[in-house]
Sequence to fold (363 residues):
Amino acid sequence: MSDRAPLCVKSYDRPLSNVPSTVGVPLRFRFYVLVAPCQSFCMRKRAGLLTGGASICASLAIIAFVVSKLISSSIEPTYDGHPLSHWVTRLSETTYLPNSENEKATNAINHIGVAALPFLLKWIVEKDTPRWKPKLARLLDRIPFAVTHQFSKQLAKTTDPKLGFATYGAFKVLGKRAAPALDDLCEIINDPNNTYSTTLHAVWNLRCLGTNALPALLSVATNRQKKTRLAALTEIGTMSDLGNATEPTVIAITSCMRRDRTNADYQLVAIRVLGELKAAPQIFVPALASCLQSTDAGVRARSAETLGRLGSQAGSAIPALTNVLTDPDPNVQTSAILALRKIAPLTFTDVVSRAGNSPVFSR
Fold:
C-alpha cells in the first residue's frame, strides 16, 4: 500500500484549519483522523435538524390544541338540529308566535341547561368584531381540512345584536340553575367599559337568579355611580319573597331615599318598590311620610298613593297626610284624600267636615 496521503486532502488549494495535521501519523490511522471532523459536523447538523423538527412539532401541537379549544368554545350546543342562538331568538319572539313555539323553545333551553351559560354571557357583552377574525377565517378556509372549514365558519359568523336582549328569556327559563353565572354577571355590571345596554341586560338577567342575586342588585341600586341603579331597584321590587333579607333591603332603600332627596326619579322608583314589597312597614312608612314634604309634586302624590295601598298599616302617617290636604297641587290633594279613605275612613270624614266646601273635597 502506498504511503501517500489520500487524494482528497491534496485537492485543497489551502490548508483546512478544521482538518488536523497527519504528519508523523501512521497511514492506517490517517483515515480516522481526517474523517472524524466530518462525522462530528454531520452529527451536529443532524442534532440541529432533530431539534428544529421537534420545535416545529411542538409548535404545531400547541396550535392544534388552541384551535381545538377555540372550535369547541365556539360551537353552540344544539337541540332538535338547531343551535342555541336559534332557540334564544325564538324564545324572545314568542309574543308573536303560537304557544306551541314558545313551549318548544322553552324545552330546548331546559334541555341544553347550564351548557348555555358561556354563550349567553358572551352575547350579553356588546363588542365589535376584531379585525383579525375575518382574516383568519379566510385563511383557514383555504386549508383543505374539514375541521378548519368548520372553524372558519364559526369565526366568520357575526353575533346578532338582538341576542343580548334575548338572553333574558333564556335566563328566565333557567332560573336558579343559572346561579354559576352570578359572578360573571356582576363583572359585566361593574366593568366601566361596557355600554349601558350591556349592563342593563346583565341586571335583568341577574334578577332571574332569585334571592341569591339580591346582594348584587342591592349594591347596584344603592350606588350613585351606577347608571343602571333604577333598573336594579325595579328588579328588586319584582321579588315576591325576600325572606330574612326583607328588613335589611327596606332599610338600605329607605336610607338611600333620605340620601337622595333631590333625585326625584330615584324617589319615585323607590316609593313604588317599597309599595310592591309591602314588607317592614314600621321602617318605610315614616320614610314615605317624610316624602310628603318633597319639593316634587310627583313624589308627594306617589307617596300618598303608596300609603293608601298599605291600608291600616300606614296609620302612623295620618297626620302627615292630613297636612297635605291643602297642598297647592290638586293631584297631591286627591291622592291624600284617597289614602285617608283607605287608611282610616273615620278620620277622613272628620277632616272633610272641617274642610267645609273646599273644591278638592267635593270630588
In short: Confidence is low (pLDDT under 50) at residues 7-14, 63-73, 354-363. Strands lie at 78-79, 82-83. Residues 27-74 form the longest helix (48 residues).
